[in-house]
């Protein structure tokens, strides 16, 4: 049996039916997204066993463990080797932070988990920067601090699968920006799969390795993050936030102009700023609305980023907007550009044509 998470669920709640068939990677951050009411949280609850899915074809398995087969629960909810972090931190208010962690460690063995030893436990506490919080009660903590404690509690229990249900949705923007770097670190140190429910594309673009898109209880699309974003069901789901996510390498820091160059398979993308602590490998984001296209090489311009591309696909117009999929030279990576239907007609664009993509803004996902 493979090590992937296998989920085949048909589960009806009132007028809503979740009907999914997924084989998900055994490691990395798997983002689950879609409109409100699409079944994101219901899917997580079924995997955790908090929703009792009925049906002879239902199956949930991980590695060599069968968690659910048909209508019978092969492994009880409280024995599944997973940890679940909710939108609210769910810390026990009468216990200190340290006592909350101890309580979770004691319960973890019931889930067939072997909690982390003292050295690894100390590493997680340091990683999530909660050492100074250990003696405090949950009511003394900010929202961001409570979520960091909830993450530490989950990791120290040493589950095989980590479920995160919109862990940042209850936080304001400042607290979100505070906790995102910690989530990135969690993704690096946790060896198993992390199923991360979110409707926030900025979080998904920054954190996810794999993407599952749900709509009305069914899988609209799924696959590696960058390639799934390229398949463009996005006007239905993202609105203005249609984007491309590219993987590149730091190639140059221009101290005279305070710019950093990221090379994506040989194509240069310039970003503002000079962070000397950047790792060599970097993920960047380009919004479709920040790209204009030209059929001839543009003359001098204030737009620094101008990339030669091949027009690979033209998607059908929707409300006067057209999405173009552009292939970078000598690369399997692609950009999405948004133009008006009028521009499409005036430029007489055809698939296979060479275009110059002028990119007004590039963001580093960190």
UniProtKB/TrEMBL annotation:
One of its GO terms (cellular component) is membrane. Keywords: ATP-binding, Cell inner membrane, Cell membrane, Membrane, Molybdenum, Nucleotide-binding, Translocase, Transport. SUPFAM superfamilies: MOP-like, P-loop containing nucleoside triphosphate hydrolases. Residues 1-241 form the ABC transporter domain. Gene3D superfamilies: 2.40.50.100, P-loop containing nucleotide triphosphate hydrolases (3.40.50.300). Residues 300-366 form the Mop domain. Pfam families: ABC_tran (PF00005), TOBE (PF03459). InterPro entries: AAA+_ATPase (IPR003593), ABC_transporter-like_ATP-bd (IPR003439), ABC_transporter-like_CS (IPR017871), Mo/tungstate-bd_C_term_dom (IPR008995), ModC_ABC_ATP-bd (IPR011868), Molybdenum_import_ModC (IPR050334), Mop_domain (IPR004606), P-loop_NTPase (IPR027417). SMART domains: AAA. One of its GO terms (molecular function) is ATP hydrolysis activity. PANTHER family: ABC TRANSPORTER I FAMILY MEMBER 10 (PTHR43514), MOLYBDENUM IMPORT ATP-BINDING PROTEIN MODC 2 (PTHR43514:SF10). This is Molybdenum transport ATP-binding protein ModC (TC 3.A.1.8.1).
């Amino acid at each position: 049996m493979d090590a992937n998470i296998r989920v085949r669920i048909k589960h009806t709640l009132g007028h809503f039916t979740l009907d999914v068939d997924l084989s998900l990677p055994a490691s990395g951050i798997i983002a689950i997204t879609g409109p409100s009411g699409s079944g994101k949280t219901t899917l997580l609850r079924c995997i955790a066993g908090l929703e009792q899915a009925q049906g002879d074809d239902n199956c949930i398995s991980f590695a060599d463990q069968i968690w659910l087969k048909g209508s019978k629960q092969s492994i009880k909810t409280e024995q599944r080797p997973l940890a679940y972090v909710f939108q609210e931190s769910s810390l026990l208010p009468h216990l200190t932070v340290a006592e909350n962690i101890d309580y979770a460690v004691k319960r973890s063995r019931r889930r067939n988990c072997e909690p982390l030893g003292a050295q690894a436990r100390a590493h997680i506490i340091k990683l999530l920067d909660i050492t100074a919080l250990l003696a405090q009660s949950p009511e003394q903590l900010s929202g961001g601090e409570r979520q960091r404690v909830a993450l530490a509690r989950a990791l120290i229990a040493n589950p095989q699968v980590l479920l995160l249900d919109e862990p940042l949705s209850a936080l304001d923007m400042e607290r979100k920006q505070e906790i995102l770097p910690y989530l990135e670190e969690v993704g690096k140190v946790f060896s198993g799969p992390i199923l991360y429910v979110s409707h926030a594309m900025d979080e998904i673009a920054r954190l996810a390795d794999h993407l599952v898109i749900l709509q009305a209880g069914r899988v609209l699309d799924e696959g590696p993050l960058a390639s799934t974003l390229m398949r463009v069901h996005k006007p239905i789901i993202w609105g203005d936030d249609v984007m491309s996510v590219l993987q590149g390498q730091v190639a140059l820091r221009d101290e005279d102009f305070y710019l950093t160059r990221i090379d994506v398979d040989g194509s240069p993308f310039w970003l503002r700023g000079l962070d000397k602590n950047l790792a060599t490998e970097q993920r960047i984001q380009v919004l479709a609305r920040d790209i204009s296209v030209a059929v001839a090489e543009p003359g001098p311009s204030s737009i620094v980023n101008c990339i030669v591309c091949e027009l690979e696909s033209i998607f059908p117009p929707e409300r006067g907007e057209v999405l173009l999929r552009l292939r970078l030279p000598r690369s399997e990576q692609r950009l999405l550009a948004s133009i008006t239907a009028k521009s499409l007609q005036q430029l007489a664009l055809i698939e296979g044509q060479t275009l110059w993509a002028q990119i007004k803004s590039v963001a580093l996902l960190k």
